[in-house]
Amino acid sequence: MGNFYVIYFMRFYLRIFIFILIISNIIAQDPQTTLAVLDFEPRGINSLEAATLTDRFTSEIGKTETMILVDRTMVEEILKEQGFQQSGCTTDE
Question: How far apart are CA 57 and CA 69, in angstroms?
Fold first, then answer.
């Protein structure tokens, strides 16, 4: 009868241990990386080909679903805002 309780509690603790491992693995997973793709500079090719390569590169990365892509219009807005702030026209107050 004593062995029954030992085996029962060992199975109980083993289940709790496995549950904790599974939960900790789920919690510890890294969130997706955020990525912004800027326009490629046309070096040795014309600007239309550079734009096509930029679009293709962005679409191929988007297909992997391992990264969160920032919309190009959002990138332009952020860069304009940063340029405005660096111009000295704003204060930190």
Answer: 11
Q: How far apart are CA 40 and CA 93, in angstroms?
A: 37
pLDDT of residue 90: 52
pLDDT > 70: percent of the chain:
82
| 67, β-bridge pairs | 33
Domain boundaries, the chain: 1-30, 31-88
Q: CB-based burial of residue 53 (10 Å sphere; 0-12 exposed, 13-18 middle, 19+ buried)?
A: middle
Q: What residues form DSSP beta bridges with 35? A: 69
- Contact predicate 69/37, CB 8 Å: yes
